[in-house]
Specification:
Radius of gyration: 17 Å
Number of helices: 10
CATH architecture: 3-Layer(aba) Sandwich
CATH superfamily: Alpha/Beta hydrolase fold, catalytic domain
Number of domains: 1
Shape: globular
CATH class: Alpha Beta
Oligomer: single chain
C-alpha cells in the first residue's frame, strides 16, 4: 500500500537519530508540516511525517473505517524500515495508541514520545470525562463518529482542539482535509482489548499532555506515566491540537531538549 511520507532534511549538521511523526484521528501528515517538521529540521533532526493508510494522501481512503490498530502499526513498521537507522517516533492522540501497539507487536524504536496520546488503559475514561465536562463537544464527536468529522459543528470541535479560534487558513485546512473516522481502530483504542505493551517493553520515553486538553485529560496522561514508570510533562495551557496551535513551541521545545539529552 502506498503511504504518504513527508520529509524534511536536517538544516544544520544532522543528529544521529531521525524523527518520525504519527498523526491522530481524521488527520494526516499535514498536521506536522507547518511547525514541527521545519522546527526539528532546523535543530538538526532529519524529520518525517507519515499519513497512515486511509489518511492524507495515502491509499485506502475508501476503507478507512475498516483498518485496525494492527494495520496502522504495520504502516509504522514499514516506514521505520524505509527510513533506516535510529528512529525516534512521536505519536499524537490515536497515533500514540498506534505507536504503543507497534511496540507491543515487536516494533523497534530508539525512543518514543507520547504527545496527548491515547493512554495504555484506553480512552473510555477520557470519553466519560468529556461527556460530563463538555457534553456539547462529546455530542459533536459522536455525530462525527457516525458520519465523519466534516458533518460536526466545526466551531465546537475547534474550541475543543485549540487554545483560541484558529486563523482562517488553518480553519480552511481542517475543513478541507479532515478525513473520515478510522472506526475499527478507534473502537480498539477505547481499551476493551489491551493494545499497549508491558511497561518494560518500551524504549526511552517522553510523555506530554496538556492541562486544557479536552480529548485526553491531564489525569490520563499522568496515569500513562505511572503505568510506564515515567514522569509526565503537563503543559500549563496545552491543548489537544498542540502541533497546530499558536502555543506549539511549548511542546516542541521540551521534545527537542529531551532528544538532545538522550540522543546527542
Amino acid at each position: 500500500m502506498k503511504l504518504e511520507l513527508l520529509h524534511r532534511p536536517a538544516v544544520t549538521t544532522a543528529k544521529r537519530v531521525r524523527l518520525l511523526f504519527v498523526h491522530g484521528i481524521s488527520t494526516g501528515a499535514w498536521v506536522w508540516e507547518r511547525s514541527f517538521l521545519p522546527y526539528f529540521a532546523e535543530h538538526g533532526y532529519e524529520s518525517f511525517a507519515l499519513s497512515l493508510r486511509g489518511h492524507g494522501n495515502s491509499e485506502g481512503r475508501d476503507r478507512i473505517r475498516d483498518f485496525s490498530l494492527a494495520d496502522f502499526a504495520d504502516d509504522v513498521a514499514e516506514t521505520v524500515k524505509k527510513i533506516g537507522g535510529d528512529v525516534v517516533i512521536v505519536g499524537h492522540s490515536l497515533g500514540g495508541g498506534v505507536l504503543q501497539n507497534y511496540i507491543k507487536r515487536g516494533g523497534a524504536a530508539s525512543g518514543v514520545v507520547l504527545l496527548c496520546s491515547a493512554p495504555p488503559h484506553g480512552l473510555l475514561r477520557a470519553s466519560t470525562i468529556m461527556a460530563a465536562r463538555n457534553p456539547q463537544l462529546w455530542n459533536e464527536l459522536a455525530k462525527g463518529f457516525k458520519r465523519g468529522l466534516r458533518t460536526a459543528d466545526l466551531d465546537i470541535v475547534e474550541a475543543g482542539l485549540f487554545s483560541e479560534p484558529p486563523p482562517p487558513d488553518i480553519r480552511r485546512l481542517l475543513h478541507d482535509r479532515f478525513d473520515d473516522i478510522a472506526e475499527t481502530a478507534s473502537r480498539q483504542v477505547i481499551g476493551w482489548t489491551p493494545f499497549a505493551p508491558f511497561p518494560w517493553g518500551m524504549p526511552k520515553m517522553l510523555i506530554i499532555g496538556g492541562e486544557k486538553d479536552e480529548f485526553v485529560p491531564a489525569s490520563d496522561v499522568r496515569l500513562t506515566a505511572i503505568y510506564y514508570g515515567e514522569r509526565s510533562l503537563i503543559l500549563p495551557d496545552g491543548v489537544h491540537a498542540i502541533m497546530m496551535d499558536r502555543r506549539w513551541q511549548e511542546a516542541a521545545k521540551p521534545i527537542a531538549a529531551w532528544l538532545d539529552r538522550n540522543f546527542s
